[in-house]
Amino acid sequence: MEKYEQAELDYIAGMKYKEIAEKYETSVNTVKSWKQRYNWVREKRNSRDVKKECAHKNKKVCTQKIKGAAVSDETEKEQVFDNTENPALDERKKLFCLFYSQTFNATQSYQKAYGCSLNTARAHGYELLRNVEVKSEIEHLTELKRQQLLAKESDFVELQMRIAFADAGDYYAIKGDKIVWKDSDQTDTQLVREAKTVKGDISLSLYDKQKAIDWLTKYFLMHPDDKYKAEFDKKRAEVKDDSAEQILANMQIITDVLKNPVPNRKIEDLEGDEESEQTGTTE
């Protein structure tokens, strides 16, 4: 289940934008864009059924704080362990797996998890890595970390998509002879670089669309299977790209020169011929 699908269940159940954003570690504007893009509607399902579905999909977790574990101030907090993942491991082994998946240092991870001396950690850290259950749990945590990184990358791609195809008209409305700002709840404010009203005139500046398009073009060349590529290609096709048309025209000119060599002929001459054909005039 995609992140935005899980967020939709929470929205239907009655959660606010801010609460959903905090739960899925994203911005309020991203949540708003999900709502608009995927047409979330609160009356879509009975809230009681949605809550049951959410409860069914969320795994049960318990929090444990290990006494005696030598953990730094930054990491000395409650660690969340999933009981269903690997019940064969005790809490200290789970701590070791957690620390190792972050640092890939067996000695340091063992010392933090067990609160022992450096010599003891050196003696037992790599030995613990040979444990089949420990190895399996580390692989699981590493994969989770990889998926989180991919999710963050996906969020950035989505942001670039929104910037690339943003419409300034979404931010204001015309009422009679006046132009007024739309309510912030109805707009994606994350795309606005600057917005102000000067002497009754509205001034709006969005982030650079062309830079976003250039970045996405390069990104999709390297990631042709990305889920956003089809949407990007579709929207690009809907938008007239004069620069692309000019490039194609120049390529056609060069091709004609190569196919029809004429002594002392210049590209400028061919461009002139092309203009004559378009206007229907001859010399």
UniProtKB/TrEMBL annotation:
Instruction: Keywords in alphabetical order, please.
Output: Viral genome packaging, Viral release from host cell
Show where the RNA polymerase sigma factor 70 region 4 type domain sits: 9-37
Disordered: annotated span: 264-283
Q: Which domain of life is it from?
A: Bacteria
Q: Name one GO biological process term.
A: chromosome organization
Q: Any transmembrane segments, and where?
A: none
Asked if the keyword Glycosyltransferase belongs to this entry, the reply reads no
GO terms for MF: DNA binding; sigma factor activity
User: What lineage is this protein's organism placed in?
Assistant: Bacteria, Bacillati, Bacillota, Clostridia, Lachnospirales
> Which InterPro entries does the annotation name?
RNA_pol_sigma70_r4_t2 (IPR013249), RNA_pol_sigma_r3/r4-like (IPR013324), SPP1-like_terminase (IPR052404), Terminase_Gp1_N_sf (IPR038713), Terminase_ssu (IPR005335)
* Name of the featured protein: Uncharacterized conserved protein
**Cross-referenced PANTHER family:** PBSX PHAGE TERMINASE SMALL SUBUNIT (PTHR41328:SF3), TERMINASE SMALL SUBUNIT-RELATED (PTHR41328)
